[in-house]
Amino acid sequence: DQKEFIREFTWLVFRKAAAEEQFCGLFAKLISEIKLEYPVIMEEVKNLHNTYLDIWKVNGSDKAIDRRCRLGHSQFLAELTSFGVLDSDSMKLTLQELKTSITDCLSDSEYIKTVEEYMDCLKKLCGSTVPKSIKFMFRELLLSDLESWISASRDAFPGFSNKSRFACMDLRDTLVKGN
Fold first, then answer.
1. Is 49:86 a contact under the CB 8 Å cutoff?
2. Structure confidence at residue 64 as a pLDDT band (50, 70, 90)
3. I need a surface site. Which of 129, 133, 161, 169 has the fewest CB within 10 A?
4. Which residues neighbour 100 within 8 Å (Cβ) at sequence distance 6 or greater?
């Protein structure tokens, strides 16, 4: 049936975009152009977005999600938002989940590489393709956390490397400038 085909198609596009981030813009544009003709796509994008929120969790998820595609997933979400496929509430939920995951990892040096990857994901989510209204929301939700992470001592956050600290500084500057 056509509805099931569209669901499978959307799932495939989501996976492909997350795995090949250089094509995220094209995949997001494809979804945005056919969403009016096939409204079930929007329902499926919402379902996939909610499922993929577990991609940030280090522990406690029983869903089979490929965490290797976190950067591509972040880029794809930013692109979907720029094309109006994802709304600000979805991006807010994503950002809050990612912030929680970062906070959960900061207290353990075992997660240094994970936090570095999360910082790269934050930079992708807040990238140049995201509309200014979403960037403003990100600034409101992130700036105080970024400041506290930047100013914290190494002993306070053993999972926070210098690479992560510099990524936070870059992200803070980007959000403050509004670029």
1. yes
2. very low
3. 133
4. 56
